[in-house]
Design a protein that fits this description.
- The structure is a single chain.
- It contains 13 helices and 11 strands.
- α6 runs parallel beside α7.
- With 386 residues, the chain is of the alpha/beta class.
- It has 2 domains: 342 residues, Thiamin diphosphate (ThDP)-binding fold, Pyr/PP domains (Rossmann fold); 35 residues, no CATH class.
- The strands form 3 sheets. The protein has a 6-stranded parallel sheet with strand order 2-10-11-7-6-5, with helices on both faces.
- The longest helix is centred in the first third of the chain and has 26 residues.
């Protein structure tokens, strides 16, 4: 996006004295009121300067991805997907941070970053092929600068750290045109050893990486107060790099804080951890029943902080967008979801021998032999390989 982020020059690494900046960076209140600027505990000041078209784009992407997400969940409930991990409620954190990425930056997701995937220009059907079981979710990470979904909790943070160390060793940091890496994970993943190892390595090697933790309050059924005794972003200080909490339901602040952290990384100033304080409005996955471990009143309180409604209220009150725009956006989201459904239902089931198609880019004699043996085995059954 062409928006600019303004921030004060500070020495990063140690928080400012207590009693200064608020704990959480926010540029848009839950009732849609704009805050001109905000500071983090390190003294960094954040503000954004968007055009009307850029505001429209942020809102459009959040609305579309929520509708696509709802369609995917419905497909799973109807038996068309094996499982689905919804992002409902986390659109601002994902779209804001996704738009903060530059084309050269590399993102490492979990299995829920559908909004970031959409912002990176990947066809939204790609993860649905994975969850339908007809492929391995095989988009090209190098083309889109977006790694494949990671199911193992926290493992992608080490992958991202290694990649970021390689970026630094290749001399691709040190200026405004440098490269940066972002690793997404949830609050539950912070209890995994992989994540803590990633913090150690990235800190020691001054890796150009941003750790983006979406704290949606629950590690499946485990609430955040049973996972940590301190706010998650404060853990970064113990590893020697800044930790910042941002209002994850505020798309403006999510963009501003992520962009600033990525810029710090690409200039060779090391890692940052961002804790996007948000809420999972739905289930952890479609195999989960959240009513067993959280109260309806809690959900209602967070629904009042809905990230899409928050931005819509701001756009309407500031006359940045009107009813025609909102209606058109809703229509485009509905059309996109209908198209996605039709395409998912039309996905062909793979043939067993396709297992060998993409193992090596230039082929392998040993693999050809295995393919021939497997094909002969399938042909031994009535009806053959098909």
């Amino acid at each position: 996006m062409g928006a600019t982020v303004t921030r004060a020059r500070t020495t990063r690494g140690e928080p400012a004295a207590p009693g200064g900046a608020p704990e959480m960076v926010q540029l848009l209140t839950p009732d849609g009121k704009r805050i001109d600027s905000a500071r983090d505990p390190y003294g960094t000041e954040y503000t954004v300067d968007f055009t009307d078209q850029e505001y429209h784009k942020l809102y459009h992407d959040m609305v579309v991805i929520r509708r696509l997400d709802a369609e995917a969940e419905a497909l799973q409930r109807q038996g068309e997907l094996g499982i689905w991990a919804s992002l409902r409620g986390q659109e601002a954190a994902q779209v804001g941070s996704g738009h903060a990425l530059r084309p050269q930056d590399m993102a490492f997701p979990t299995y829920r970053e559908h909004g970031v995937l959409y912002c990176r220009g990947i066809d939204p059907i790609m993860p649905l092929g994975l969850f339908r079981g007809v492929d391995q979710g095989g988009w090209d990470p190098s083309k889109f600068k977006f790694h494949m979904y990671t199911i193992v909790i926290g493992a992608q943070t080490l992958h991202a750290t290694g990649y970021a160390m390689g970026v630094a060793k290749d001399g691709k940091v040190g200026g405004d045109d440098g490269e940066a890496v972002i690793a997404y994970f949830g609050d539950g993943a912070t209890s995994q050893g992989d994540v803590n190892e990633a913090f150690v390595w990235s800190s020691v090697y001054h890796a150009p990486i941003v750790f983006f933790c979406q704290n949606n309050q629950y590690a499946i059924s485990e609430p955040i107060e049973r996972q940590t005794r301190v706010p998650l972003h404060q853990r970064a200080n113990g590893f020697g790099f800044p930790g910042i909490r941002v209002d994850g339901n505020d798309v403006l602040a999510s963009y501003a804080v992520t962009k600033a952290a990525l810029d710090q990384a690409r200039r060779g100033q090391g890692p940052t951890m961002i804790e996007a304080y948000t809420y999972r409005m739905g289930a952890h996955t479609t195999s989960d029943d959240p009513t067993r471990y959280r109260l309806a009143g809690e959900v209602e309180q967070w629904q009042a902080k809905d990230p899409i409604l928050r931005l819509r209220t701001f756009l309407a009150e500031q006359q940045i967008a009107g009813d025609d725009f909102f209606q058109q956006t809703d229509a485009e989201a509905k059309a996109a979801s209908q198209e996605l459904r039709e395409r998912v239902l039309a996905l062909p089931d793979p043939q067993p021998v396709q297992l060998f198609d993409h193992v090596y880019p230039t082929g392998s004699a040993e693999l050809d032999q295995q393919r021939a043996q497997f094909s002969a085995y399938l042909e031994s059954f009535e009806g053959g390989a098909h």
